[in-house]
Amino acid sequence: MRVTIEINGRTVTDEVEDRTLLVHFVRENAGLTATNIGCDTTSCGACTVLLDGESVKSCTVLAAQADGHKVTTLEGLSGPDGEQHPLQRSFREQHGLQCGFCTPGMIMASASLLAHNPKPTRDEVREGLEGNLCRCTGYHNIVSAVIEASGQEVDR
Amino acid sequence: MSIVGTRVVRVEDEKLITTGGTYIEDLREEALTGAVHAMFVRSPIAHARITSIDTSEALAAPGVVAVYTAEDIDLAPGAAGPVAEPWLADGVVRYVGQPVALVLTQERYQLADAAELVDVDYEPLDAVASIDAALSDETVIFPEHGSNLMQEHGHEFDDNAFADCEVVITETIVNQRVAPAPLEVRGAACVWGEDGRLTFWPSTQNPQMARTIIAAGLGVGEESVHVITPDVGGGFGAKIGADPDAVVIAWASRKAGRAVRWSETRSENMTAMTHGRAQQNTVTVGGRRDGTILAFRLDIVQDAGAYPRTLFLPTLTELMASGVYHFPKVEARSRGVVTNTTPISAYRGAGRPEATAAIERAMDLFAAEIGMDPAEVRKVNFIRPDEFPYQTPTGAVYDTGEYAQALDKVLENAGYTELRAEQARRRDSGDPVALGLGLATYVEITGGDGGGESGRVDIHADGSVTAYTGSSPHGQGLDTTLAMLLSDQLGVPMDRITVRHGDTDEVPKGVGTFGSRSLQLGGSAVRQAADEVIERAKQVAAELLEASTDDMELNAEAGMWQVRGAPSSRTVTWAQVAEKAGEGQLSADVWFDKGTPTFPFGAHLAVVEVDTLTGKVVLRRLVALDDAGPVVNPVTFTGQRHGGLGQGAAQALLEVMNYDADGNPTTATLADYSFITATELPDFELLDMATPTDRNLLGVKGIGEAATIGSTPAVHNAVVDALSHLGVKHIDMPTTPMRVWQALARVREAD
Amino acid sequence: MIPAPFSYRRAASVDEALAVLTEHGDDAKLLAGGHSLLPLMKLRLAAPELLVDISPIDELRYVRTDGDDVVIGAMSRYHDLQGDSVLREHAPLLAHVSGVVGDQQVRHRGTIGGSIAHADAAADLPAAVLACDGVLVARGPKGERRIPAAEFFVGPFTTSLEPDELLTEIRVRKQDGTGWGFEKFTRRAIDWAIVGVAVAGGSVALINMAGTPIRATATEEALAGGASNAEAARLAAEGTNPPDEAHASSRYRQHLAKVLAERALVQAATRG
Description:
The complex is a heterotrimer. By secondary structure, chain A is an alpha+beta fold. Chain A has helices at 22-29, 86-93, 103-116, 122-128, 140-149, and strands at residues 2-7, 10-15, 48-51, 54-57, 70-72. Chain A has a five-stranded mixed beta sheet with strand order 2-1-5-3-4, with helices on both faces. In chain A, strand 3 and strand 4 form a beta hairpin. Chain B contains 18 helices and 30 strands. The longest helix of chain B is centred in the C-terminal third of the chain and has 28 residues, at 518-545. Helix content of chain C is 35%, strand content 24%. Chain C has three domains: 7-53, 2-Layer Sandwich (Uridine Diphospho-n-acetylenolpyruvylglucosamine Reductase, domain 2); 58-173, Uridine Diphospho-n-acetylenolpyruvylglucosamine Reductase, domain 3 (2-Layer Sandwich), CATH 3.30.465.10; 180-270, CO dehydrogenase flavoprotein, C-terminal domain (Enolase-like, domain 1). Chain C has a five-stranded antiparallel beta sheet. In chain C, strands 11-12-13-14 form a four-stranded antiparallel beta sheet, sandwiched between helices. Chain C starts with 6 loop residues before the first strand and ends with a helix. By secondary structure, chain C is of the alpha+beta class. Chain C has twelve helices and 14 strands. The longest helix of chain C is centred in the C-terminal third of the chain and has 21 residues, at 250-270. Chain C is globular and about 55 Å long. The chains are: A alpha+beta, B alpha+beta, C alpha+beta. Chains in contact: A-B, A-C, B-C. At the A-B interface, helix 2, helix 3, helix 4 and helix 5 of A face helix 1 and helix 16 of B. Chain B: GO terms for molecular function: iron ion binding; oxidoreductase activity. Chain B: It comes from Saccharomonospora amisosensis. Chain B: Residues 19-126 form the Aldehyde oxidase/xanthine dehydrogenase a/b hammerhead domain. Chain B: This is Carbon-monoxide dehydrogenase large subunit.
């Protein structure tokens, strides 16, 4: 079937199998490889993107379901002038990433979390990111990164 | 001003936070254009005879390029310790997840469709699904071997070892099997050139070792294999070298005459990537009622899984058996057995966490028996600072340590006395939510392989620097760390330094990253190479400044060469020196082989709350001191500790790979396996201490695994401590709610 | 993993969805948020030939009051429901439970109708609706019918919906002033409940204590007879035969049901 999705402001149209997962459309058809696949049970969140502004696991959405909708991936998070999003800066500043594999999904999930809760507590960040697994960081610095991006002081 | 020891954000991150890393699936190399996709057909049965494989239907499926089985493979079998491990199962399968066939298709989406059509008939055999079943030898997995026992190591136990003890405690402690579960699964891409040379991109911790394994597997010379490691999405020991699957992929690429891409699914990964830990350890500890321990015995049984790939794990556990304690008598032995389960290999700590878990649980058991605070019992038995270097009865030679000081700092900063008072208050009031305090004081061995590492430093004519390392970081931030070291040593700004690794044509010699070896060995190698470059530059600078070589000195603040004792004299820059020397001349390529193992140590305190009505454990605090000598970059040093704490706590609380009695894994997806999340972990409380070593050029010890090793027994001990007043003496890990509830139910019934 | 091949159809209205169901019968499977179905398809535990995507049916996305009832369109997402002011006022249990299903991303896609029609005994919302004595509204070629929740869940992943019927609406009595409580016991926050208890007034429903969500009738009767919360909760596992699994035995689940029932009842006493 023919699928048209606006990804990071660019319209991508392609003929795909009906069963094509959104994550593969993003990676293969749109050529945006920041979004990773870490599992096959909707558990890890590595493939998180924004669909119409809200975080979804793109391995559990069909490309067909996103037809006519807007998707934002990590590559689309920086401003038009290339200025980095506060989360991109804070993940780096707070060392919220190590191997980097969970990072695109983690940042997109964090963006969605902050959209709904602009000043979360550390516990609220932990709860908000429960659907995103990280094997490297023990999460501490990820929580700090989200706190910093929210404009709050990181006190630990 | 020196930047070593200051907080430097990582140079690696810019790409990772904007366009994402380039992992195996992200490779867009031209050479891979038109690559076919590969998927293994894996055994769904733990132990069975294969009576037939019919590939005809799969071969007729859309897009199928080839289906290979053992019959097709014309390679000499690989070895897994004392037995052969077939590339694809050749008549018998021995674990769920073992590769049976390989399917190649044009498109990724055709893979699973075709793989489903490979028709394999299995005739089930009795499965050996536990250590006890293996030891019984009722079913022998490799009949030609005669027994499931594959390795015995260590000494006979002395019947009189505990004769002088007032108190002797024995307990069997399970160190459960866990899944390393790096977020990026295993994968590779490869292509054979017209020159007959293989280019292979693996997700590995050790490109040079991967090259050796792949070349040996294929029966070709190492010069015929070019390995390039892209970004690696975590390894944790399970991506050391290359698994047999990688050899099959390289072979299939040659056979089919096509470039091949392979990436396993997560559900495959959970049974096909090696697991870690999997020991059953019996500890016996004896001593006096004043807390002095006189004798310690550790009897290790290592479940090696179906193919015993790494039987060094239990011997490392033996080596580290007595931990931070000065015990007059220590006995350790190990046995390695095979079972019809996924092979066991390294997982963050690899042999040392098991040793620490056993001794630290034993210390608490002993303390409970004699009615002494666990902190006090530890203090009575610590190796004292004046005893270093200290040779343990099992043969380790510890370099430096301040064990008592580490524990004291933790106790003081955590408010141990107040926490004990709070615990007593809750117990007195009958609070159903019990408070538990768990201690672990640990020592571990890093760079324990005793091998060296390569390092090369090139100064270019523009004054920029390229360093090449045989280490192969995959998240540790070593690019930043090495650049910091070089920046300090050479006086060249960080942004003029590039660190390269992972390509075996660029870095032909190397060992790679495991066992927390990279900074102490890889860092020392780069230090040594830079030392040599400085020596060479000295001569060139002397020519430029028309002075004696002996009078030349590098002003590492400014990155300038000058004449000693004449600060107002003329200076020359690195660029001038390098230009004079000629491109490629100011270079040193070294092999650092003077490193010997180092012994980081620390003390951890965990505070848990246990709901005694449901058995649920909540980890409230984790206070950790990890001393690995001087710190190059506090940012990444802290990151390694955090990650270790998280993974260590996960083993104590949640994670386990379970099998049923027939050898079927019951936790084989990420939905079933309790991979720890942010919600289950607290903010970590870190304390610092830095005791240097004299065993390498930097005075550093490894930090990659240390916090994993300390945190598991700390959290484990905390859970048991919470319930000790109710009569619970031990609960095996993971301390899941049902385990806790069952333990409480047992003591209630016993009353 | 990738699902086996299937055909995808999008239905923009209830009538369109029903027409497709009538035409294709058992070969067609409805796709709402997809967060129960797609994972099963990716693991190839389910392989429908035709997926009918009903998530675009905007007419089924609402929460409103209707006389004494609060009514919820089946395609309402958890994320919409957890913050919905009408739901929070008139059925706070359902709003609360919608906020604890899965994780943030799952709640952005998953729908209440999808969860109820999927009828997983380990799921949160079916039990919560059962506790509220909810009524499930189904539309089929023969028109609309109302099925009490107690008759809707007939077995594991099995409901009394006909293959050509579509769940369109969830109706519950306004719970104004009714005490409510909810306890979900998991190893990790994101896990399915090992056991859960939903309380609405004197009604107590159990998650994962049988092949379907069930009512703790002994507890309810005891409460009606004036028993204390603690006494009534002790009867919560009466007559149950919950799943026996490696991480949670049947006996353990029965124990948990009693502990959690008391906690949920205590919560209910303080709310409403």
